[in-house]
Amino acid sequence: MKKIIIGVILILTGASLGFCKNKNQYTMKSPNSQIEAVLSNENGLLSYQVFNNGKEILLSSRLGLEFIGEFDLSKGLKVVEVEKSKYDEQWEQPWGETQKVRNHYTQYLYEVKNENYKLNVYFRLFNNGVAFRYEIPKQEGVGSFKMSNELTEFKLAKGDKAWWIPAYDKNSYEHLYKKTSVEQLVDTVHTPLTVELKNGGLVSIHEANLTNYASMCLAPDHQGGLECDLAPWPNGIKVVGKAPFKSPWRTIQIGENAGDLVTNYMILNLNPPCKIKDTSWIKPAKYVGVWWEMHMKKSTWKQGEKHGATTENVKRYIDFASKYGFAGVLAEGWNYGWDGAWYKDGSNFIFDKPVPDFDMTELSKYAKDKGVQIISHHETGGDVANYEDQVEKAFQYCRSNNIDAIKTGHVGQYLNGKHTHYGQFAVNYYRRIVKLAAKYQICLDVHEPIKDTGIRRTWPNMMTREGARGMEFDAWSKDGGNPPEHLTVVPFTRCLAGPFDFTPGIFEMTLPTRPKNQSNMTLAKQLATYILIYSPMHMAADLPENYEGNPALQFILDVPVDWADTKVLDAKLGDRYTVVRKDRNSEDWYLGCATDEEKRTFSQKLSFLDAGAKYVAEVYRDGADAHWKENPKAITIEKIDVTSKSTLKYDLAAGGGLAIRFKKVQ
Fold first, then answer.
1. Best label site of 234, 393, 433, 625, fewest CB within 10 Å?
2. Is the CB of residue 35 less than 8 Å from the CB of residue 54?
3. Pick the CATH number of 6-269 from 3.90.1150.10, 2.70.98.10, 3.40.630.30, 2.130.10.10
4. How confident is the model over 637-663, as pLDDT tens digits?
């Protein structure tokens, strides 16, 4: 792996700060000077502003930390020294939405003091955003501490529009996004928070490298400002720690349009490099499994006459996976603990003991002989104490049965009955599991997770996670499922954090066993979802019998889940989205396009294709009379010859989409 690294460090004292606006202000610039930040130090307080091309993105916003006791880093602060450095490298992801990532920034380290204590504040300015973090250095009189508040603010202008979901709700991250002006926010909200600026462009406020700290939510001040709100411990304390100590990075990603946010890899760059020396065992893959049939009431997780994860039924899925080349078969409900109200009390789950009608030994051998692997499921019911008591033994059990991928679940509002899914306790719990899984060469798909903050760079066995409204809501949600605009919103909100296990590929959208619900999109849009939503583990979620004989299945079989490059061709948050991705293992490109409930016309020049090369476009588009509600299955499949000079034009149905494979002609 080739890297380009440039490092230049200039030490500047408070008396010779060449980038000062005045004695109390310090101007910072991105490598291309397009983005600027200004740190102000007045009246013993720290604040900052952010500009893009001279336009103010964030108004003066406070910085600082508060603690229980005499330790205080919120006031009486004075910048005493600044260190400036530049950095430029290119690194390669073992898997990802792009193979190579450039990490290019200018860093400013501010050494700050008050009468008794020291604080370091780091700023990194990229060409597409700003990040900053706090460091409590080792110092006399500071050992262990209890943080009561982080004073970080993000002051936005009145009239800016935010796409948001509420924090501290019993459904955690699983909400539909709402759009209001920032000053009209009534709830504390989760990040990533995507904001459409009234003076043009967008920003996404989030965090990176969330390690041994509480997750950041954002509380409105009802005047356009947002204040850092750390998810607390049950006793109200936000963070406990010991010097030296670093906070996560607070991130402001900046784009001229929504597509710029999708291809902004700043959050990945703010995480440490990979800690797994040999990543060859970490393999992106598509899978099927015993899952959707439970949502369809065809079978159950619990034991009984309708039990889904039986030896016979799992063999049926293994046969289907082997026939069509799917790498894995997920089995949910295979172990003890599903009988009774497990979602209220997960203490009965046993993670190395199959129920009587599930023969793990036989199925492990059967799957191996068929070239397929079982994906185990570990639902905790939120009782993570019970899980951690068993987890190492459970991982050993998985390895002894040729299982190298696990889907974990954490249903319930709280972990261990009292901890939110995004407080410091939860952050550390989820990290312990990821690191232990790496020890046993196990990849993870985490449901009811802590949000992604780019840690997949450091621990790439953390493959994908839920943390949003996925396909399952189409099956049983009282509001009828995810609306047609959902796939034009989540790529620019939740998916900015990282991969999303959306579980697409539903071909029977009208859901006969769930007459009050349906999957609110056309079949072509179902296929496009594999491109629109990035995940290195994508499920073909429907029942095998709904795939057999349907020519649209071919697209799911062909589409990769690991990419060399990603380009957004067109995007308007909440309305439409078109993205292309290049296969990492071939010269082929794949296009996904989606619209909301409105009909639209897709027209696109194929300039992303190699000049002078010939391609066959395998097109899966909405049929002439397709409609997400009235006729979702109508689809037209065709092949046409194209080059980089070609332009394609198609009509998208209401709630429709378009999926294309561009196969290079050798």
1. 625
2. no
3. 2.70.98.10
4. 999 999 999 999 999 999 999 999 999
SS3 80: strand
β-strands 462-465, 45-52 pairing: unpaired
DSSP 8-state code for residue 112: E
Q: Which pLDDT band, with edges at 50, 70 and 90, does 46 fall under? A: very high
* DSSP letter for each residue of 8-63: EEEEEETT--TTEEETTEEEEE-TTSSEEEEEEEETTEEEEEEEETTEEEEEEEEE
Architecture, CATH, for domain 472-498+509-534+553-666: Alpha-Beta Barrel (3.20)
Sheet holding 328-331, edge to edge: 462-465, 443-446, 405-409, 373-379, 328-331, 285-290, 537-539
> pLDDT confidence of 40, banded at 50, 70, 90?
very high
The pLDDT score that the predictor gives to residue 22 is: 66
Q: Are 90 and 2 in contact (CB under 8 A)?
A: yes
Q: Is 573 in contact with 567 (CB distance < 8 Å)?
A: no
Phi-psi region of 186 (alpha: psi -120 to 50; beta: other; left: phi over 0): alpha
Inform me whether the pLDDT recorded for 118 exceeds 90: yes
What phi and psi, each to the nearest 5 degrees, are found at residue 662? Answer: -100, 100
CATH dotted code for 283-467: 3.20.20.70
Q: Tell me the catalytic residues.
A: 472
Strand extents, DSSP E, 412-517:
443-446, 462-465
Looking up tokens 């502003």 gives: 49
3-state secondary structure of 101: strand
Give the DSSP H/E element, type plus range, for residue 461: none
Contacts of 364 (CB under 8 A, 6+ apart): 374, 401, 402, 403
What sign for the dihedral angle of Cα 43, 47, 52, 56? negative
Q: Where in the chain is the domain with CATH 3.20.20.70?
A: 283-467, 472-498+509-534+553-666
Residues of the chain with CATH 2.70.98.10: 6-269
Q: Averaged over 111-120, what is the pLDDT?
A: 96
pLDDT band at residue 224, thresholds of 50, 70 and 90? confident
Residue 273's CB is within 10 A of a number of other CB atoms, namely: 10
How many alpha carbons lie under 13 Å from residue 623 in its C-beta half-sphere? 14
Q: How far apart are CA 584 and CA 94, in angstroms?
A: 11
The residue assigned the tokens 């102000």 is 40
Q: Closest Cα partner for 215 from 47, 491, 19, 429?
A: 429
Mean pLDDT score, 479-498: 98
Amino acid in the structure at residue 273: P
Q: How far apart are CA 239 and CA 216, in angstroms?
A: 11
How crowded is the C-beta side of 356, counted as CA atoms within 13 Å? 3
The distance from CA 137 to its chain's CA centroid, rounded to whole angstroms, is 31
Nearest in space to 650 (alpha carbons), one of 628, 616, 617: 617
Alpha helices by DSSP H, 456-598: 472-476, 523-532, 544-547, 553-558
